[in-house]
Design a protein that fits this description.
The structure is a homodimer of 339-residue chains.
Chain A: H1 5-12, H2 16-23, H3 31-44, H4 50-57, E1 62-66, H5 73-76, H6 79-93, E2 97-100, H7 106-118, E3 124-127, H8 135-142, E4 147-150, E5 162-164, H9 167-180, E6 186-190, H10 196-211, E7 221-223, H11 231-239, E8 247-250, H12 253-265, E9 275-279, E10 293-296, H13 299-315, E11 323-325, E12 329-331
Parallel strand pairs in A: 1-2, 1-3, 3-4, 4-5, 5-11, 6-7, 6-8, 8-9, 9-10
Antiparallel strand pairs in A: 10-12
Chain B binds a DNA duplex (16 and 16 nucleotides) through helix 2 and helix 4.
DNA sequence: CTGAAAGCGCTTACAG
DNA sequence: CTGAAAGCGCTTACAG
């Protein structure tokens, strides 16, 4: 069995209570005693038992990280490691641990979250996605546990704490950038339609078109889970339109490169024949050919700030829901050309 | 305060001990009582407190995941999410949770691991990397806690449980594939030299050359942390050699594409002028141009099996150290050509 | 089949 | 400045 506080107490000739206070660096304990007890702790290789400590404190110093459908998309995309890096940094600075969801289906994830929360496994939660009618989010809203969402909640956003890019305006600006380059036939390849980020970007896309009197045509949009199977066909359809697009906005750099690959197979060249712009500015995008114009959404900062917000709420439960906007910026590289 | 076992007991008119046994589905409790108590638990929304349960059981049903230097490389590379996906699947199936290291430096990570282990925060550990003279590994060896390494330990490998690709032979086969294509001047771009995987692949590279009577020339090797800053120069140097290589083996697909980018900047074309092969078979590699020939190392399975091994050791501590080899296979695509 | 009691390893009022 | 005692929420021999 491991060394306990009692063992240390006995050896040091003090009470367990005193040892506990030395660990907590309680100012009412004499320096002399502290020195003595610390020496014994070190000699014996004592480490506090988290389970016991957490039980009495009724906290875990742990943040739960909930990601969508770990079995599939979430893991394919560099977004996940990067946002996790931000969370990780912040958590480490505050001496918090990270507990990861492992569920593959919505139902599994829901069960996990309930257990994390009710079982007091975590002190707070970062929800890494935002989708419409999400039971997980609804559960968290009703629970007392501090949490923050990466992304804008679909309903009643002001009542929850979240970080977000202004996806509507960012998408709008992006499309306007292409319009400024002379493009009028701009296609939009978006993500799954139940994700708020997809909805927002689609809206920004439409706003930009409207502003410049370009009619919205649903045939110019592809909305589905990419990296799935029918992408190639979608691109073929898009380029086979009576008036094919001269520019394509894709919701992720990786998807952009996938699209570029399909286009090259069709002997359509980027940016000569079609301009392409991505989102997320993955590390690799600057090295690939063509270097991808993209929107950097500060993924690391999204994670960092989300963790910060949860930690804040854990420290002070009275803090009202807060919304933090993280900047995004267009990075011009070589995948778009002026018409 | 949350609902406890006592609240349920009172409402159901039984003792807390009985409630506890109902939760554990103890066969000595009558069905009638079980039904009654379960109904009350449901009505009250009772969930067991993990901290308390773990304290008396002296286990946490949690696996610690230790990754190298979370602040930098580990997160840039799709290896991490993919291996995590494997671990996650296995852990979820066994109803284990995942606890992630957050440290950015070797020293921070070491401290975290010690706390995880001594503080009984986790029941087992998966070490996601293997490097030479790693204090973390040495600590784990001395501890009683079950653990598994992804990668071959540098010293005394038979005494630790690990999963690995046969990196030496895989690298050897890869180089021989290029030799079979007629290449004699083959460069090797490897990872950081304190990682065992880099050492092994370099050795395989050398073995292949030796077997075919091609002298090893250190000028044909680049060994450093790529994605750092001097990569472009290294490639320029390589291609400026009196006899430049006709083929380059890189230790990762992302690095391969970075190299391809630098080569294109030098007006050197792949595969026309230089053949390139990668490692790890990232999802995106098949879509990019040129489609990358690469070695698939079954990253998902590495994670899955590592988790499986730890779980096995947790269940039965008497199991001797085990070594599991995970297959790797060469995937021919369009980035290599016959001379 | 069920309960009272002890205990897991800590922390923290309460006393002194 | 320090200790004895109670308690965090659970589990599990021991009795009956």
């Amino acid at each position: 069995m491991a060394i306990t506080i009692k063992d240390v107490a006995k050896k040091a000739g003090v009470s367990p209570a005193t040892v506990s206070r030395v660990i907590a660096d309680n100012p009412r304990i004499s320096v002399k005693t502290k020195v003595k007890v610390r020496k014994v702790m070190e000699d014996m290789g004592y480490y506090p038992n988290f389970q016991a400590r957490n039980l009495v404190a009724n906290k875990s110093r742990t943040l739960g990280i909930i990601m969508e459908n770990s079995a599939a998309l979430a893991f394919q995309n560099p977004f996940f490691p990067e946002v996790l890096r931000g969370i990780s940094t912040q958590a480490h600075d505050s001496k918090y641990g990270l507990y990861l969801s492992t569920g593959a289906t919505q139902e599994e994830i829901y069960q996990e979250v309930v257990e994390m929360v009710q079982g007091r496994r975590v002190d707070g939660i970062v929800l890494l996605y935002s989708k419409i009618d999400d039971p997980v989010l609804e559960f968290l809203r009703k629970s007392e546990l501090p949490f923050a969402v990466v992304g804008r909640p679909h309903q009643d956003p002001c009542s929850v704490t979240y970080v977000n890019n202004d996806n509507i305006n960012t998408a709008k600006d992006t499309v306007e950038y292409l319009i400024g380059l002379g493009h009028r036939h701009i296609a939009f390849v978006g993500g799954a339609t139940d994700f708020v980020v997809s909805i927002d970007r689609m809206q920004g896309y439409q706003q930009a078109l409207a502003k410049h009197d370009i009619p919205f045509d649903v045939n110019y949009t592809v909305n589905q889970d990419f990296i799935q199977g029918k992408e190639r066909d979608s691109i073929r359809r898009l380029m086979g339109l009576p008036v094919p697009p001269t520019a394509i906005v894709t919701h992720d750099d990786m998807v952009a490169y996938e699209v570029i690959g399909y286009l090259e197979d069709l002997e359509i060249r980027v940016p000569d024949d079609v301009s392409i712009i991505g989102f997320n500015n993955h590390t690799i995008s600057r090295y690939l050919k063509p270097p991808l114009s993209t929107v950097d959404i500060s993924i690391y900062e999204l994670g960092l700030r989300a963790a910060e917000l949860v930690l804040e709420k854990i420290t002070d439960a009275s803090i009202p829901p807060k919304q933090v906007a993280v900047p995004s910026r267009l990075i011009e590289r070589g995948s778009c050309r002026r018409l």
